[in-house]
Design a protein that fits this description.
This is MFS transporter. This protein has about 425 residues and is mainly alpha-helical. It is about 80% helix and about 0% strand. The chain is globular. It starts with 5 loop residues before the first helix and ends in a 19-residue tail after the last helix.
Protein backbone atom coordinates (compact mmCIF):
# COMPACT_ATOMS: atom_id res chain seq x y z
CA UNK A 1 0.00 0.00 0.00
CA UNK A 2 1.56 3.28 -1.12
CA UNK A 3 1.92 6.22 1.22
CA UNK A 4 -0.62 9.00 1.30
CA UNK A 5 -0.21 11.76 -1.26
CA UNK A 6 0.09 15.40 -0.21
CA UNK A 7 -3.61 16.13 -0.93
CA UNK A 8 -4.62 12.99 1.01
CA UNK A 9 -2.45 13.95 4.00
CA UNK A 10 -3.72 17.53 3.93
CA UNK A 11 -7.33 16.38 3.79
CA UNK A 12 -6.82 13.93 6.65
CA UNK A 13 -5.30 16.62 8.84
CA UNK A 14 -8.49 18.65 8.82
CA UNK A 15 -10.06 15.89 10.94
CA UNK A 16 -7.12 16.40 13.31
CA UNK A 17 -7.78 20.14 13.21
CA UNK A 18 -11.51 20.37 13.91
CA UNK A 19 -12.08 17.42 16.27
CA UNK A 20 -10.83 19.45 19.23
CA UNK A 21 -13.87 21.69 18.74
CA UNK A 22 -16.25 18.75 19.19
CA UNK A 23 -14.92 17.72 22.58
CA UNK A 24 -13.91 21.09 24.06
CA UNK A 25 -16.71 23.34 22.81
CA UNK A 26 -19.63 20.98 22.20
CA UNK A 27 -19.17 18.22 24.76
CA UNK A 28 -17.00 19.05 27.74
CA UNK A 29 -15.83 22.56 28.66
CA UNK A 30 -17.97 25.25 27.01
CA UNK A 31 -21.33 23.78 28.12
CA UNK A 32 -20.18 24.00 31.76
CA UNK A 33 -18.78 27.49 31.14
CA UNK A 34 -22.08 28.68 29.67
CA UNK A 35 -24.08 27.10 32.49
CA UNK A 36 -21.89 28.90 35.02
CA UNK A 37 -22.30 32.23 33.21
CA UNK A 38 -26.06 31.79 33.04
CA UNK A 39 -26.26 30.89 36.74
CA UNK A 40 -24.31 34.03 37.67
CA UNK A 41 -26.84 36.02 35.62
CA UNK A 42 -29.65 34.62 37.78
CA UNK A 43 -30.98 32.12 35.24
CA UNK A 44 -32.20 28.82 36.65
CA UNK A 45 -30.48 25.56 35.76
CA UNK A 46 -33.54 24.26 33.92
CA UNK A 47 -33.88 27.45 31.87
CA UNK A 48 -30.20 27.60 30.91
CA UNK A 49 -30.34 23.94 29.86
CA UNK A 50 -33.35 24.76 27.71
CA UNK A 51 -31.49 27.69 26.11
CA UNK A 52 -28.54 25.40 25.43
CA UNK A 53 -30.85 22.90 23.73
CA UNK A 54 -32.54 25.62 21.69
CA UNK A 55 -29.15 26.94 20.53
CA UNK A 56 -28.00 23.52 19.36
CA UNK A 57 -31.29 22.85 17.61
CA UNK A 58 -31.29 26.24 15.89
CA UNK A 59 -27.75 25.77 14.57
CA UNK A 60 -28.66 22.29 13.32
CA UNK A 61 -31.78 23.64 11.61
CA UNK A 62 -29.91 26.44 9.84
CA UNK A 63 -27.21 24.12 8.49
CA UNK A 64 -29.75 21.48 7.47
CA UNK A 65 -31.79 24.03 5.51
CA UNK A 66 -28.75 25.50 3.76
CA UNK A 67 -26.79 22.28 3.18
CA UNK A 68 -28.37 20.95 -0.06
CA UNK A 69 -28.54 24.38 -1.74
CA UNK A 70 -25.02 25.43 -0.77
CA UNK A 71 -23.77 21.99 -1.75
CA UNK A 72 -25.42 22.28 -5.16
CA UNK A 73 -23.85 25.71 -5.75
CA UNK A 74 -20.46 24.35 -4.61
CA UNK A 75 -20.57 21.73 -7.37
CA UNK A 76 -19.81 24.52 -9.83
CA UNK A 77 -16.15 25.05 -10.56
CA UNK A 78 -14.25 27.01 -7.90
CA UNK A 79 -17.03 27.30 -5.32
CA UNK A 80 -16.27 24.30 -3.09
CA UNK A 81 -12.98 25.71 -1.73
CA UNK A 82 -14.53 29.14 -1.16
CA UNK A 83 -17.43 27.75 0.86
CA UNK A 84 -15.16 25.50 2.90
CA UNK A 85 -12.83 28.42 3.68
CA UNK A 86 -15.72 30.69 4.65
CA UNK A 87 -17.35 28.25 7.09
CA UNK A 88 -14.08 27.06 8.62
CA UNK A 89 -12.97 30.67 9.15
CA UNK A 90 -16.36 31.51 10.64
CA UNK A 91 -16.00 28.68 13.14
CA UNK A 92 -12.43 29.56 14.14
CA UNK A 93 -13.10 33.30 14.55
CA UNK A 94 -16.21 32.88 16.68
CA UNK A 95 -14.53 30.19 18.80
CA UNK A 96 -11.91 32.83 19.61
CA UNK A 97 -14.70 35.27 20.45
CA UNK A 98 -15.98 32.83 23.10
CA UNK A 99 -12.82 33.68 25.06
CA UNK A 100 -13.32 37.43 24.68
CA UNK A 101 -17.02 37.94 25.39
CA UNK A 102 -17.56 38.75 29.12
CA UNK A 103 -19.43 36.06 31.05
CA UNK A 104 -22.04 38.69 31.99
CA UNK A 105 -23.07 38.68 28.33
CA UNK A 106 -24.40 35.11 28.43
CA UNK A 107 -26.74 35.68 25.49
CA UNK A 108 -23.89 36.95 23.31
CA UNK A 109 -21.91 33.87 24.34
CA UNK A 110 -24.76 31.66 23.22
CA UNK A 111 -25.07 33.51 19.89
CA UNK A 112 -21.33 33.10 19.31
CA UNK A 113 -21.69 29.38 20.00
CA UNK A 114 -24.51 29.11 17.44
CA UNK A 115 -22.28 30.78 14.83
CA UNK A 116 -19.34 28.48 15.64
CA UNK A 117 -21.66 25.47 15.30
CA UNK A 118 -22.83 26.67 11.89
CA UNK A 119 -19.21 27.23 10.84
CA UNK A 120 -18.14 23.79 12.09
CA UNK A 121 -21.01 21.88 10.48
CA UNK A 122 -20.95 23.94 7.29
CA UNK A 123 -17.24 23.35 6.72
CA UNK A 124 -17.73 19.63 7.27
CA UNK A 125 -20.19 19.40 4.35
CA UNK A 126 -17.52 20.55 1.91
CA UNK A 127 -14.69 18.78 3.72
CA UNK A 128 -16.47 15.43 3.39
CA UNK A 129 -17.27 16.16 -0.26
CA UNK A 130 -13.56 16.84 -0.96
CA UNK A 131 -12.90 13.13 -0.34
CA UNK A 132 -13.79 12.42 -3.97
CA UNK A 133 -11.19 14.98 -5.10
CA UNK A 134 -8.21 13.86 -3.02
CA UNK A 135 -8.23 10.10 -3.57
CA UNK A 136 -9.51 7.21 -5.67
CA UNK A 137 -12.46 4.93 -4.93
CA UNK A 138 -10.05 2.13 -4.04
CA UNK A 139 -8.36 4.21 -1.32
CA UNK A 140 -11.39 6.00 0.13
CA UNK A 141 -11.85 3.53 3.00
CA UNK A 142 -8.28 3.96 4.17
CA UNK A 143 -8.17 7.74 3.76
CA UNK A 144 -11.53 8.33 5.45
CA UNK A 145 -10.54 6.01 8.31
CA UNK A 146 -7.18 7.75 8.72
CA UNK A 147 -9.03 11.05 9.00
CA UNK A 148 -11.30 9.83 11.78
CA UNK A 149 -8.37 8.16 13.57
CA UNK A 150 -6.29 11.33 13.49
CA UNK A 151 -9.36 13.22 14.63
CA UNK A 152 -9.63 11.10 17.76
CA UNK A 153 -5.95 11.64 18.57
CA UNK A 154 -6.04 15.31 17.63
CA UNK A 155 -9.03 15.98 19.84
CA UNK A 156 -7.38 14.54 22.95
CA UNK A 157 -4.23 16.71 22.86
CA UNK A 158 -5.84 20.17 23.26
CA UNK A 159 -8.50 18.59 25.51
CA UNK A 160 -5.90 17.21 27.93
CA UNK A 161 -3.97 20.50 27.90
CA UNK A 162 -7.17 22.44 28.55
CA UNK A 163 -8.33 20.14 31.36
CA UNK A 164 -4.86 20.33 32.95
CA UNK A 165 -5.00 24.15 32.96
CA UNK A 166 -8.51 24.13 34.46
CA UNK A 167 -7.57 21.61 37.18
CA UNK A 168 -4.45 23.61 38.08
CA UNK A 169 -6.61 26.73 38.32
CA UNK A 170 -9.08 24.88 40.57
CA UNK A 171 -6.24 23.70 42.82
CA UNK A 172 -4.66 27.21 42.92
CA UNK A 173 -1.49 25.80 41.36
CA UNK A 174 -1.60 28.61 38.82
CA UNK A 175 -2.96 32.11 39.59
CA UNK A 176 -6.00 31.91 37.31
CA UNK A 177 -9.72 31.60 37.88
CA UNK A 178 -11.54 28.61 36.40
CA UNK A 179 -13.32 31.02 34.07
CA UNK A 180 -10.06 32.40 32.66
CA UNK A 181 -8.67 28.86 32.39
CA UNK A 182 -11.74 27.91 30.35
CA UNK A 183 -11.24 30.93 28.10
CA UNK A 184 -7.66 29.80 27.49
CA UNK A 185 -9.10 26.41 26.47
CA UNK A 186 -11.25 28.15 23.84
CA UNK A 187 -8.21 30.02 22.48
CA UNK A 188 -6.21 26.76 22.30
CA UNK A 189 -9.08 25.09 20.43
CA UNK A 190 -9.44 27.93 17.92
CA UNK A 191 -5.69 28.12 17.24
CA UNK A 192 -5.45 24.33 16.90
CA UNK A 193 -8.37 24.33 14.46
CA UNK A 194 -7.01 27.23 12.41
CA UNK A 195 -3.38 26.07 12.30
CA UNK A 196 -4.06 22.54 11.11
CA UNK A 197 -6.60 23.73 8.53
CA UNK A 198 -3.80 25.42 6.58
CA UNK A 199 -2.58 22.25 4.77
CA UNK A 200 -6.14 21.67 3.54
CA UNK A 201 -6.38 25.23 2.23
CA UNK A 202 -2.98 25.01 0.58
CA UNK A 203 -2.92 21.55 -0.99
CA UNK A 204 -6.50 20.43 -1.68
CA UNK A 205 -8.32 21.56 -4.83
CA UNK A 206 -11.65 20.74 -6.46
CA UNK A 207 -10.95 18.11 -9.10
CA UNK A 208 -14.52 17.23 -10.07
CA UNK A 209 -16.99 19.97 -10.91
CA UNK A 210 -19.65 21.29 -13.21
CA UNK A 211 -18.86 24.29 -15.38
CA UNK A 212 -20.12 27.62 -14.12
CA UNK A 213 -23.33 29.12 -15.43
CA UNK A 214 -24.47 32.77 -15.54
CA UNK A 215 -26.84 32.45 -12.56
CA UNK A 216 -25.53 29.63 -10.30
CA UNK A 217 -28.02 30.21 -7.46
CA UNK A 218 -31.13 29.94 -9.65
CA UNK A 219 -29.61 27.02 -11.54
CA UNK A 220 -28.81 25.29 -8.25
CA UNK A 221 -32.42 25.61 -7.10
CA UNK A 222 -33.57 23.98 -10.36
CA UNK A 223 -30.94 21.24 -10.13
CA UNK A 224 -31.86 20.47 -6.53
CA UNK A 225 -35.53 20.22 -7.48
CA UNK A 226 -34.71 17.89 -10.38
CA UNK A 227 -32.63 15.66 -8.09
CA UNK A 228 -35.47 15.34 -5.59
CA UNK A 229 -38.03 14.82 -8.39
CA UNK A 230 -35.90 12.07 -10.00
CA UNK A 231 -35.00 10.37 -6.74
CA UNK A 232 -35.61 6.92 -8.27
CA UNK A 233 -32.53 7.44 -10.44
CA UNK A 234 -30.49 7.47 -7.22
CA UNK A 235 -32.13 4.46 -5.57
CA UNK A 236 -28.95 2.93 -4.09
CA UNK A 237 -27.74 6.27 -2.81
CA UNK A 238 -30.94 7.30 -1.05
CA UNK A 239 -31.57 3.79 0.26
CA UNK A 240 -28.14 4.00 1.88
CA UNK A 241 -29.01 7.42 3.32
CA UNK A 242 -32.16 5.95 4.84
CA UNK A 243 -30.16 3.10 6.40
CA UNK A 244 -27.55 5.62 7.58
CA UNK A 245 -30.26 7.73 9.21
CA UNK A 246 -31.25 4.87 11.50
CA UNK A 247 -27.94 3.29 12.45
CA UNK A 248 -25.99 6.54 12.81
CA UNK A 249 -28.79 7.76 15.10
CA UNK A 250 -27.96 4.85 17.38
CA UNK A 251 -24.21 5.57 17.16
CA UNK A 252 -24.64 9.26 18.04
CA UNK A 253 -27.15 8.57 20.81
CA UNK A 254 -24.93 6.07 22.63
CA UNK A 255 -22.08 8.59 22.61
CA UNK A 256 -24.08 11.70 23.52
CA UNK A 257 -26.07 9.95 26.26
CA UNK A 258 -23.04 8.17 27.74
CA UNK A 259 -22.32 10.66 30.52
CA UNK A 260 -25.97 10.84 31.60
CA UNK A 261 -26.18 7.04 31.51
CA UNK A 262 -22.98 6.66 33.56
CA UNK A 263 -24.17 9.24 36.05
CA UNK A 264 -27.44 7.36 36.53
CA UNK A 265 -25.59 4.24 37.66
CA UNK A 266 -23.47 6.22 40.12
CA UNK A 267 -20.24 6.95 38.21
CA UNK A 268 -18.57 10.24 39.22
CA UNK A 269 -17.87 13.11 36.82
CA UNK A 270 -14.07 12.69 37.00
CA UNK A 271 -14.33 9.01 36.12
CA UNK A 272 -16.68 9.85 33.27
CA UNK A 273 -14.13 12.29 31.80
CA UNK A 274 -11.41 9.65 32.09
CA UNK A 275 -13.64 7.09 30.35
CA UNK A 276 -14.43 9.62 27.61
CA UNK A 277 -10.71 10.24 27.10
CA UNK A 278 -9.92 6.49 27.03
CA UNK A 279 -12.67 5.89 24.48
CA UNK A 280 -11.15 8.53 22.18
CA UNK A 281 -7.71 6.93 22.49
CA UNK A 282 -8.85 3.38 21.75
CA UNK A 283 -11.04 4.56 18.86
CA UNK A 284 -8.02 5.79 16.85
CA UNK A 285 -6.27 2.45 16.10
CA UNK A 286 -9.55 0.59 15.66
CA UNK A 287 -10.73 3.16 13.12
CA UNK A 288 -7.57 2.55 11.07
CA UNK A 289 -8.14 -1.20 11.42
CA UNK A 290 -11.70 -0.82 10.14
CA UNK A 291 -10.38 1.08 7.14
CA UNK A 292 -7.95 -1.71 6.26
CA UNK A 293 -10.56 -4.43 6.79
CA UNK A 294 -12.99 -2.42 4.68
CA UNK A 295 -10.55 -2.63 1.78
CA UNK A 296 -10.16 -6.37 2.25
CA UNK A 297 -13.75 -7.43 2.93
CA UNK A 298 -15.70 -4.40 1.55
CA UNK A 299 -16.89 -1.34 3.43
CA UNK A 300 -20.50 -2.51 3.41
CA UNK A 301 -19.60 -5.75 5.23
CA UNK A 302 -17.54 -3.89 7.83
CA UNK A 303 -20.33 -1.36 8.44
CA UNK A 304 -22.66 -4.33 9.00
CA UNK A 305 -20.07 -5.79 11.41
CA UNK A 306 -20.07 -2.52 13.33
CA UNK A 307 -23.87 -2.50 13.47
CA UNK A 308 -23.88 -6.06 14.88
CA UNK A 309 -21.35 -5.02 17.54
CA UNK A 310 -23.59 -2.08 18.46
CA UNK A 311 -26.55 -4.43 18.82
CA UNK A 312 -24.39 -6.46 21.22
CA UNK A 313 -23.50 -3.24 23.09
CA UNK A 314 -27.18 -2.38 23.55
CA UNK A 315 -27.92 -5.86 24.88
CA UNK A 316 -24.92 -5.66 27.23
CA UNK A 317 -26.11 -2.25 28.46
CA UNK A 318 -29.38 -3.78 29.61
CA UNK A 319 -27.49 -5.88 32.18
CA UNK A 320 -24.96 -3.17 33.15
CA UNK A 321 -24.63 -2.52 36.88
CA UNK A 322 -21.07 -1.55 37.90
CA UNK A 323 -18.35 0.92 36.92
CA UNK A 324 -16.35 -1.99 35.45
CA UNK A 325 -19.34 -2.86 33.26
CA UNK A 326 -19.42 0.77 32.09
CA UNK A 327 -15.71 0.64 31.24
CA UNK A 328 -16.27 -2.51 29.17
CA UNK A 329 -19.19 -0.85 27.41
CA UNK A 330 -17.13 2.27 26.62
CA UNK A 331 -14.22 0.26 25.26
CA UNK A 332 -16.58 -1.71 23.01
CA UNK A 333 -17.98 1.55 21.69
CA UNK A 334 -14.43 2.75 21.03
CA UNK A 335 -13.72 -0.28 18.84
CA UNK A 336 -16.50 0.45 16.35
CA UNK A 337 -17.57 4.10 16.63
CA UNK A 338 -14.95 5.65 14.37
CA UNK A 339 -14.89 2.73 11.95
CA UNK A 340 -18.62 2.86 11.27
CA UNK A 341 -18.50 6.64 10.73
CA UNK A 342 -15.39 6.53 8.53
CA UNK A 343 -16.58 3.70 6.29
CA UNK A 344 -20.03 5.27 5.99
CA UNK A 345 -18.44 8.47 4.69
CA UNK A 346 -16.26 6.53 2.25
CA UNK A 347 -19.12 4.28 1.09
CA UNK A 348 -21.34 7.28 0.42
CA UNK A 349 -18.52 9.06 -1.45
CA UNK A 350 -18.28 6.06 -3.79
CA UNK A 351 -22.02 6.15 -4.49
CA UNK A 352 -22.35 9.85 -5.38
CA UNK A 353 -21.75 11.31 -8.84
CA UNK A 354 -18.38 12.99 -8.32
CA UNK A 355 -19.28 16.22 -10.09
CA UNK A 356 -22.32 16.53 -7.77
CA UNK A 357 -20.60 15.42 -4.57
CA UNK A 358 -21.35 18.64 -2.66
CA UNK A 359 -25.07 18.48 -3.39
CA UNK A 360 -25.30 14.90 -2.17
CA UNK A 361 -23.10 15.47 0.87
CA UNK A 362 -25.58 18.21 1.72
CA UNK A 363 -28.22 15.49 1.96
CA UNK A 364 -25.75 13.33 3.89
CA UNK A 365 -25.38 16.17 6.39
CA UNK A 366 -29.15 16.55 6.75
CA UNK A 367 -29.69 12.84 7.39
CA UNK A 368 -26.85 12.83 9.91
CA UNK A 369 -28.12 15.91 11.73
CA UNK A 370 -31.76 14.91 11.96
CA UNK A 371 -30.69 11.41 12.98
CA UNK A 372 -29.65 12.98 16.28
CA UNK A 373 -33.30 13.56 17.19
CA UNK A 374 -35.06 10.18 17.35
CA UNK A 375 -32.46 8.27 19.38
CA UNK A 376 -32.39 10.47 22.50
CA UNK A 377 -36.20 10.66 22.45
CA UNK A 378 -36.41 6.86 22.21
CA UNK A 379 -33.97 6.39 25.10
CA UNK A 380 -35.67 9.02 27.24
CA UNK A 381 -39.21 7.79 26.63
CA UNK A 382 -38.31 4.14 27.23
CA UNK A 383 -36.37 4.97 30.39
CA UNK A 384 -39.26 7.09 31.67
CA UNK A 385 -41.90 4.45 30.92
CA UNK A 386 -39.90 1.56 32.43
CA UNK A 387 -38.19 3.56 35.16
CA UNK A 388 -34.92 1.97 34.05
CA UNK A 389 -32.11 3.75 32.13
CA UNK A 390 -30.71 0.38 31.02
CA UNK A 391 -33.96 -0.33 29.18
CA UNK A 392 -33.64 3.05 27.45
CA UNK A 393 -30.24 2.18 25.99
CA UNK A 394 -31.45 -1.33 25.09
CA UNK A 395 -34.26 0.23 23.03
CA UNK A 396 -31.65 1.52 20.54
CA UNK A 397 -31.45 -2.05 19.21
CA UNK A 398 -34.49 -1.10 17.12
CA UNK A 399 -32.55 1.61 15.26
CA UNK A 400 -29.60 -0.67 14.53
CA UNK A 401 -31.83 -3.51 13.29
CA UNK A 402 -33.75 -1.19 10.94
CA UNK A 403 -30.53 0.45 9.72
CA UNK A 404 -28.83 -2.90 9.14
CA UNK A 405 -31.85 -4.34 7.31
CA UNK A 406 -31.99 -1.32 4.97
CA UNK A 407 -28.23 -1.43 4.38
CA UNK A 408 -28.49 -5.04 3.23
CA UNK A 409 -30.95 -3.86 0.56
CA UNK A 410 -28.57 -1.27 -0.92
CA UNK A 411 -27.67 -2.53 -4.45
CA UNK A 412 -24.03 -3.37 -5.04
CA UNK A 413 -23.87 -1.29 -8.23
CA UNK A 414 -23.15 2.45 -8.25
CA UNK A 415 -25.27 5.15 -6.76
CA UNK A 416 -26.86 6.31 -10.02
CA UNK A 417 -28.35 4.68 -13.07
CA UNK A 418 -26.35 4.61 -16.27
CA UNK A 419 -28.17 7.60 -17.72
CA UNK A 420 -26.44 9.97 -15.30
CA UNK A 421 -23.64 12.27 -16.44
CA UNK A 422 -19.99 11.27 -16.11
CA UNK A 423 -17.70 13.14 -13.72
CA UNK A 424 -15.49 15.74 -15.31
CA UNK A 425 -12.04 15.98 -13.72
CA UNK A 426 -10.25 19.30 -13.71
CA UNK A 427 -7.25 19.39 -15.99
Amino acid sequence: MRKMSKPERSWVFYDWANSAYSIVIVTAIFPLYFKSAATEAGISAATSTAYWGYANSFATLIVSILAPLLGTIADFRGFKKRFFTFFASLGVIFTLLLAIVPTEQWLVLLICFVVTSIGFAGANIFYDAFLVDVTSNERMNRISANGFALGYIGSTIPFVISIAIIIMAQQNIIPLSVGVASQIAFVITALWWGLFTMPMLKNVEQKYYEERVPNPVATSFKKLFVTIKNIKAYRALFLFLLAYFFYIDGVHTIFTMATAYGSDIGIGSTTLLVVLFATQVIAAPFTVLFGKLGQKFSDKKMIMTGILVYIGICIYAYFLKTAIDFWVLAMLVGTVQGGVQALSRAYFAKLVPKESSNEFFGFYNIFGKFAAIAGPVLVGATAQITGNTNSGVFSLVILFIIGGALLLRVPSHGGVHTDQTVSKPMN
